[in-house]
Amino acid sequence: MTPHVRQLRVVLNTDDLPAALAFYRDALGLPEQEAFSGPDDARVVILDAGRATLELANAAQSAYIADVETGGVVSSPVRLAFEVDDAADAAVALTDAGAPLVAAPVRTPWASLNARVTDPEGLHVTLFQELAGRPPSDLVGTEVAGLGEEGLLARAVLLAYANAEAGQEPFGAIAVRDGVVVGVGVNTREVVVDPTAHAEVEAIRDAARRLGSADLAGVTVYSSCEPCPVCRTVAAVAGVDEVVFAAHAAMVPVEVSDIPAELCRAVAQYRPDTVRPGLTGLTRDQLAAPFATFLQRRAAD
Asked: Tens digit of pLDDT for each residue in 106-140?
Protein backbone atom coordinates (compact mmCIF):
# COMPACT_ATOMS: atom_id res chain seq x y z
CA MET A 1 0.00 0.00 0.00
CA THR A 2 1.33 3.45 -0.93
CA PRO A 3 1.75 5.55 2.23
CA HIS A 4 -0.28 8.75 2.33
CA VAL A 5 1.85 10.37 5.06
CA ARG A 6 4.99 11.95 3.66
CA GLN A 7 6.65 13.32 6.79
CA LEU A 8 6.54 13.12 10.57
CA ARG A 9 7.12 16.50 12.22
CA VAL A 10 7.25 16.76 16.01
CA VAL A 11 6.21 20.20 17.30
CA LEU A 12 7.58 21.26 20.69
CA ASN A 13 5.81 24.23 22.22
CA THR A 14 8.42 25.99 24.34
CA ASP A 15 8.45 29.05 26.58
CA ASP A 16 12.19 29.48 25.95
CA LEU A 17 13.00 29.17 22.25
CA PRO A 18 16.66 30.26 22.65
CA ALA A 19 17.22 27.51 25.23
CA ALA A 20 15.57 24.93 22.96
CA LEU A 21 17.74 26.05 20.04
CA ALA A 22 20.85 25.83 22.20
CA PHE A 23 19.90 22.25 23.13
CA TYR A 24 18.68 20.81 19.83
CA ARG A 25 20.47 22.90 17.20
CA ASP A 26 23.71 23.98 18.82
CA ALA A 27 24.53 21.12 21.22
CA LEU A 28 22.81 18.13 19.57
CA GLY A 29 23.67 19.41 16.10
CA LEU A 30 20.34 19.31 14.23
CA PRO A 31 20.74 21.51 11.14
CA GLU A 32 18.39 24.48 10.81
CA GLN A 33 16.14 23.86 7.82
CA GLU A 34 13.74 26.82 7.92
CA ALA A 35 12.73 29.65 10.24
CA PHE A 36 9.68 31.89 10.21
CA SER A 37 8.43 34.92 12.14
CA GLY A 38 4.87 36.07 12.74
CA PRO A 39 2.82 38.68 14.59
CA ASP A 40 3.43 39.47 18.27
CA ASP A 41 7.00 38.13 18.12
CA ALA A 42 5.85 34.68 16.96
CA ARG A 43 8.81 32.52 15.86
CA VAL A 44 9.30 28.96 14.72
CA VAL A 45 12.49 27.19 13.70
CA ILE A 46 12.36 23.84 11.85
CA LEU A 47 15.34 21.55 12.40
CA ASP A 48 16.29 18.60 10.21
CA ALA A 49 16.36 15.43 12.31
CA GLY A 50 16.92 12.91 9.52
CA ARG A 51 14.58 9.95 9.05
CA ALA A 52 11.42 10.02 11.16
CA THR A 53 9.52 7.10 12.67
CA LEU A 54 6.65 6.88 15.14
CA GLU A 55 7.23 4.36 17.93
CA LEU A 56 4.14 3.18 19.79
CA ALA A 57 4.82 1.39 23.09
CA ASN A 58 2.46 0.03 25.74
CA ALA A 59 3.03 0.46 29.48
CA ALA A 60 4.91 -2.82 29.86
CA GLN A 61 7.33 -1.90 27.04
CA SER A 62 7.87 1.57 28.50
CA ALA A 63 8.70 0.03 31.87
CA TYR A 64 11.07 -2.45 30.21
CA ILE A 65 12.88 0.35 28.33
CA ALA A 66 13.15 2.32 31.56
CA ASP A 67 14.73 -0.65 33.30
CA VAL A 68 17.25 -1.19 30.51
CA GLU A 69 18.06 2.41 29.70
CA THR A 70 17.79 4.31 32.97
CA GLY A 71 17.68 1.76 35.76
CA GLY A 72 13.94 2.33 36.17
CA VAL A 73 13.60 6.12 35.88
CA VAL A 74 10.17 6.69 34.36
CA SER A 75 10.07 8.57 31.06
CA SER A 76 8.09 11.69 30.31
CA PRO A 77 4.79 10.86 28.50
CA VAL A 78 6.45 11.76 25.20
CA ARG A 79 10.10 10.79 24.76
CA LEU A 80 12.25 11.85 21.82
CA ALA A 81 14.94 9.50 20.50
CA PHE A 82 17.77 10.52 18.17
CA GLU A 83 20.14 8.13 16.43
CA VAL A 84 23.64 9.59 16.65
CA ASP A 85 27.10 8.50 15.54
CA ASP A 86 28.46 8.48 19.10
CA ALA A 87 26.00 8.36 22.01
CA ALA A 88 28.68 9.10 24.61
CA ASP A 89 29.95 12.19 22.77
CA ALA A 90 26.41 13.45 22.17
CA ALA A 91 25.54 13.02 25.84
CA VAL A 92 28.66 14.93 26.87
CA ALA A 93 27.86 17.75 24.44
CA LEU A 94 24.35 18.12 25.84
CA THR A 95 25.33 17.90 29.49
CA ASP A 96 28.11 20.42 28.88
CA ALA A 97 25.38 22.69 27.51
CA GLY A 98 23.49 22.31 30.79
CA ALA A 99 21.14 19.39 30.09
CA PRO A 100 20.49 17.16 33.14
CA LEU A 101 21.77 13.62 32.61
CA VAL A 102 19.13 10.96 33.29
CA ALA A 103 21.30 7.95 32.44
CA ALA A 104 24.84 7.45 31.17
CA PRO A 105 25.37 5.38 27.99
CA VAL A 106 24.44 1.72 28.43
CA ARG A 107 24.62 -1.22 26.04
CA THR A 108 21.14 -2.57 25.35
CA PRO A 109 20.02 -6.12 24.52
CA TRP A 110 19.23 -4.97 20.98
CA ALA A 111 22.83 -3.98 20.14
CA SER A 112 22.72 -0.24 20.65
CA LEU A 113 24.38 2.19 23.03
CA ASN A 114 21.74 4.40 24.69
CA ALA A 115 22.03 7.50 26.88
CA ARG A 116 19.26 9.76 28.17
CA VAL A 117 19.05 13.44 29.09
CA THR A 118 16.24 15.97 29.59
CA ASP A 119 15.68 18.98 27.39
CA PRO A 120 14.94 22.55 28.67
CA GLU A 121 11.22 21.69 28.99
CA GLY A 122 11.89 18.52 31.01
CA LEU A 123 11.23 16.19 28.09
CA HIS A 124 13.23 12.94 28.11
CA VAL A 125 15.59 12.60 25.14
CA THR A 126 17.26 9.31 24.25
CA LEU A 127 20.49 9.30 22.28
CA PHE A 128 21.10 5.93 20.66
CA GLN A 129 24.02 4.60 18.66
CA GLU A 130 23.54 1.48 16.58
CA LEU A 131 26.49 -0.83 17.21
CA ALA A 132 28.18 -2.93 14.56
CA GLY A 133 26.64 -6.35 14.13
CA ARG A 134 22.98 -5.37 14.27
CA PRO A 135 21.09 -7.59 11.81
CA PRO A 136 18.68 -6.11 9.25
CA SER A 137 15.26 -5.94 10.91
CA ASP A 138 13.50 -5.74 7.53
CA LEU A 139 13.77 -9.53 7.30
CA VAL A 140 11.29 -9.86 10.18
CA GLY A 141 7.76 -10.38 8.93
CA THR A 142 8.93 -11.74 5.59
CA GLU A 143 6.92 -14.68 4.27
CA VAL A 144 9.36 -17.42 3.34
CA ALA A 145 7.16 -20.02 1.67
CA GLY A 146 8.94 -19.50 -1.64
CA LEU A 147 12.46 -19.61 -0.22
CA GLY A 148 12.49 -23.11 1.16
CA GLU A 149 15.28 -24.50 3.32
CA GLU A 150 17.99 -23.67 0.79
CA GLY A 151 16.93 -20.06 0.51
CA LEU A 152 16.69 -19.54 4.28
CA LEU A 153 20.11 -21.06 4.91
CA ALA A 154 21.56 -18.93 2.12
CA ARG A 155 20.08 -15.84 3.83
CA ALA A 156 21.65 -16.93 7.14
CA VAL A 157 25.04 -17.30 5.46
CA LEU A 158 24.63 -13.82 3.96
CA LEU A 159 23.93 -12.44 7.45
CA ALA A 160 27.11 -14.12 8.68
CA TYR A 161 29.10 -12.68 5.78
CA ALA A 162 27.75 -9.16 6.39
CA ASN A 163 28.59 -9.46 10.08
CA ALA A 164 32.16 -10.48 9.21
CA GLU A 165 32.37 -7.54 6.79
CA ALA A 166 31.37 -5.29 9.71
CA GLY A 167 34.31 -6.63 11.70
CA GLN A 168 32.31 -8.99 13.90
CA GLU A 169 32.22 -12.77 14.20
CA PRO A 170 30.91 -14.64 11.12
CA PHE A 171 27.63 -16.15 12.28
CA GLY A 172 23.99 -15.42 11.40
CA ALA A 173 20.62 -16.99 12.12
CA ILE A 174 16.96 -16.60 11.19
CA ALA A 175 13.98 -17.77 13.29
CA VAL A 176 10.83 -18.81 11.41
CA ARG A 177 7.37 -19.83 12.55
CA ASP A 178 4.36 -20.63 10.36
CA GLY A 179 6.25 -19.56 7.25
CA VAL A 180 7.13 -16.08 8.55
CA VAL A 181 10.45 -14.72 9.86
CA VAL A 182 9.91 -13.87 13.53
CA GLY A 183 13.50 -13.11 14.56
CA VAL A 184 17.00 -12.53 13.23
CA GLY A 185 20.37 -12.57 14.91
CA VAL A 186 24.08 -12.24 14.32
CA ASN A 187 26.96 -12.83 16.69
CA THR A 188 27.32 -9.68 18.83
CA ARG A 189 29.52 -11.27 21.49
CA GLU A 190 32.32 -8.72 21.27
CA VAL A 191 30.06 -5.73 20.65
CA VAL A 192 27.84 -6.15 23.69
CA VAL A 193 30.52 -7.92 25.76
CA ASP A 194 28.24 -10.91 26.32
CA PRO A 195 29.70 -14.41 25.95
CA THR A 196 26.20 -15.79 25.21
CA ALA A 197 25.37 -13.37 22.37
CA HIS A 198 25.74 -15.95 19.62
CA ALA A 199 23.74 -15.66 16.41
CA GLU A 200 21.24 -18.42 17.21
CA VAL A 201 20.75 -17.10 20.75
CA GLU A 202 20.20 -13.57 19.42
CA ALA A 203 17.64 -14.83 16.88
CA ILE A 204 15.83 -16.74 19.63
CA ARG A 205 15.86 -13.67 21.91
CA ASP A 206 14.57 -11.51 19.06
CA ALA A 207 11.77 -13.96 18.29
CA ALA A 208 10.74 -14.24 21.95
CA ARG A 209 10.57 -10.44 22.33
CA ARG A 210 8.55 -10.00 19.15
CA LEU A 211 6.19 -12.88 19.88
CA GLY A 212 5.83 -11.89 23.52
CA SER A 213 6.52 -15.40 24.76
CA ALA A 214 9.48 -17.42 26.05
CA ASP A 215 7.86 -20.56 24.63
CA LEU A 216 9.03 -20.87 21.03
CA ALA A 217 7.33 -24.12 20.13
CA GLY A 218 6.78 -24.21 16.38
CA VAL A 219 9.88 -22.09 15.66
CA THR A 220 12.70 -23.33 13.43
CA VAL A 221 16.05 -21.58 13.53
CA TYR A 222 18.11 -21.52 10.33
CA SER A 223 21.78 -20.98 11.15
CA SER A 224 24.80 -20.23 9.01
CA CYS A 225 26.87 -22.73 11.00
CA GLU A 226 26.48 -25.81 13.19
CA PRO A 227 25.40 -24.53 16.62
CA CYS A 228 27.65 -24.70 19.66
CA PRO A 229 26.56 -26.10 23.07
CA VAL A 230 25.33 -22.67 24.22
CA CYS A 231 23.03 -22.29 21.21
CA ARG A 232 21.82 -25.89 21.40
CA THR A 233 20.97 -25.47 25.08
CA VAL A 234 19.09 -22.20 24.59
CA ALA A 235 17.14 -23.66 21.66
CA ALA A 236 16.18 -26.70 23.73
CA VAL A 237 15.15 -24.63 26.76
CA ALA A 238 13.08 -22.27 24.57
CA GLY A 239 11.25 -25.20 23.00
CA VAL A 240 12.50 -24.46 19.47
CA ASP A 241 11.44 -27.30 17.15
CA GLU A 242 14.84 -27.58 15.48
CA VAL A 243 17.98 -25.75 14.43
CA VAL A 244 18.92 -26.33 10.79
CA PHE A 245 22.47 -25.33 9.88
CA ALA A 246 24.49 -24.70 6.72
CA ALA A 247 28.23 -25.03 7.43
CA HIS A 248 29.60 -27.84 9.59
CA ALA A 249 31.62 -26.98 12.68
CA ALA A 250 34.71 -28.49 11.07
CA MET A 251 34.85 -25.44 8.79
CA VAL A 252 35.09 -23.00 11.72
CA PRO A 253 38.64 -21.67 12.22
CA VAL A 254 40.18 -22.46 15.58
CA GLU A 255 40.57 -18.70 16.16
CA VAL A 256 36.77 -18.29 16.14
CA SER A 257 35.52 -21.16 18.19
CA ASP A 258 36.73 -24.25 20.03
CA ILE A 259 33.58 -26.34 20.30
CA PRO A 260 33.63 -28.88 23.14
CA ALA A 261 32.21 -32.01 21.57
CA GLU A 262 31.34 -33.49 24.96
CA LEU A 263 28.85 -30.71 25.71
CA CYS A 264 27.30 -31.01 22.26
CA ARG A 265 26.77 -34.72 22.83
CA ALA A 266 25.24 -34.07 26.25
CA VAL A 267 22.66 -31.65 24.83
CA ALA A 268 22.01 -33.98 21.90
CA GLN A 269 21.14 -36.76 24.32
CA TYR A 270 18.48 -34.52 25.89
CA ARG A 271 17.01 -33.39 22.55
CA PRO A 272 18.42 -35.62 19.82
CA ASP A 273 16.04 -34.14 17.24
CA THR A 274 16.93 -30.47 17.81
CA VAL A 275 19.85 -29.99 15.39
CA ARG A 276 20.38 -31.20 11.84
CA PRO A 277 22.34 -30.15 8.74
CA GLY A 278 20.30 -28.61 5.97
CA LEU A 279 20.42 -28.50 2.19
CA THR A 280 21.97 -25.24 1.04
CA GLY A 281 22.92 -25.54 -2.60
CA LEU A 282 26.01 -23.50 -1.70
CA THR A 283 29.55 -24.49 -2.59
CA ARG A 284 32.18 -25.08 0.06
CA ASP A 285 33.80 -21.75 -0.84
CA GLN A 286 30.49 -19.94 -0.41
CA LEU A 287 29.94 -21.56 2.98
CA ALA A 288 33.47 -20.66 4.02
CA ALA A 289 33.27 -17.04 2.79
CA PRO A 290 32.14 -15.56 6.16
CA PHE A 291 35.04 -17.26 7.95
CA ALA A 292 37.56 -16.21 5.32
CA THR A 293 36.37 -12.60 5.50
CA PHE A 294 36.54 -12.66 9.30
CA LEU A 295 40.13 -13.96 9.28
CA GLN A 296 41.18 -11.43 6.64
CA ARG A 297 39.81 -8.55 8.68
CA ARG A 298 41.37 -9.85 11.88
CA ALA A 299 44.77 -10.17 10.14
CA ALA A 300 44.42 -6.62 8.79
CA ASP A 301 43.75 -5.29 12.28
From this structure: 877 666 788 999 999 999 999 998 775 555 556 78
Backbone phi and psi for residue 102, each to the nearest 5 degrees, phi listed first: -85, -45
Least confident window among 1-5, 222-226, 295-299: 1-5
Catalytic residue among 169, 200, 202, 226: 200
200 included as an active-site residue: yes
CA distance 229 to 206: 19
Per-residue pLDDT reduced to its tens digit, 194-240: 889 999 999 999 999 889 899 999 999 999 999 988 899 999 999 99
Going by pLDDT thresholds of 50, 70 and 90, the confidence category of residue 175 is: very high
